[in-house]
Specification:
about 375 residues, alpha+beta, Glutathione S-transferase Yfyf (Class Pi), Chain A, domain 2, two-stranded antiparallel ribbon, 14 helices, 8 strands
Amino acid sequence: MTETCILYGAPCSLYTGKARSYLIKQGICYREISPASQHFVNDVVPAVHRWRIPVIELSGPVYIQDSTMIIEHFENQPQTASLLPDTPKQKIISLLIDLLGAEGLLRPAMHYRWNFKAENDDFLKENFRTLVPGGSAEMAEKSMDSMRQAGAAFGALPEAFSVIEKIYEEFLDLLDRHFSKYPYLLGGRPSIGDFGLIAPFYGHLSRDPYPASMMKKRAPRVFRWTERMNRPDADMGEFPDCPASWIENDEIPDTLKEVLKFAGKEDLLAETTAAAQCINKWLEQNNPAPGEKAGRGVGFAEFEIRGVPVQALAQPYRFFLLARMQNAFAGLDETGRRDVQSLMEELDLAPLLSVAINRKIARHDNLEVWQ
C-alpha cells in the first residue's frame, strides 16, 4: 500500500500493539510519534475528544482513534488484501479471538504489569515518561497510578492473584502447544484474531520484565510469535513446509480449539454473561439518549473464576466487539451458520453467539455512542 499515516502510540500501550502489528504486516507506510508531542496534545486530542491511543492521522487531516477502527479503515480499502478469513468458521473464530485479546485478557495483562512492582516499575517509569509532555517523572508516576487503579477495576485484586496466575499459566501452555505446530493462529498467515491477541501479548506480557521472563521460559513459542507479529515478512523459518496461507477447508486445528475451550470455560463466557446482565440493568435505570457517549464502564459485573468471586468493570466496548462477531455470524448462509453453531457448541461457547446488551453501540466522531 502507498498510503502513509502517522501512528500516535507507544511501545508499552496494549492497543497500540494491535494497530502497529497490522500496519507492519500489511506493509502500510507509517511513522510512529509519541502522544507527548504538542501536536497530539493541541490538535489530535480535541479532534478525537479524549486522550487515548492509538490514533492514526491521515491526509486531510483525518484522525481515527481505536485500534479496531484503524484496522477496519484499512480493511475497507479496495487495494487491501483483507486479513479477515472469508470462510465461515475461520471468520467467526478470528473475530472471537479479537474479542478475547482486546477484552478477555485485560486482567492478566494488568496483573502482570502492575502487581510486580519490584521487577517492573523501573522499566515502566521510563516507558511512561515517553507518554507525557516534557518526560516529567512526576506526571509519569501519576499516569502509572491511574493505570494501576484501572487494573484493580478489571478485577486484578489480591484475592484473585493466585487464580489469575494459574489460569494464565495454563493458557500460555496451551497456546505454546499450538504455536509449536503453526506460526499463526490459523496457519501460515496472520488473521484479525492474531492482531487482537497481540494487543495484550506485546505491550504488556512480552515486554514488561516479569511476564516477559516467564513467557520466554515457559512458552518460548508464544514469545517467538510476538516477534513474528512485528516483522513485515512471514518470519516462519521454523515451519519450512507451511504455506503462507490459512489452513485449507475452513479447518480449525485441535490445538486452537483447546485454547478457546479453556479460555471460554475459565473466564470469557462467565465475565461476558455477567457484564451483559450488569449493563442491561444499568440501561433500564439510566436509559441513555441515542447518541449519548457510552462510557468505559457502567458498574461492576460479579462472577466467579474457579470458585473465587471477582468484580470487574462492565464495559460496553466488549459488546461492540462481540456484536461484530454476531453480525458476521448472522450474515452467513444457512450452511455456514450451521457449521459455526456446531463448532461453538463443541467449544462450549455457543452462548456468545447470542448474549447481548439491550442497546446497540455505534461509533460516531471517534466515540462509542448508544443507539
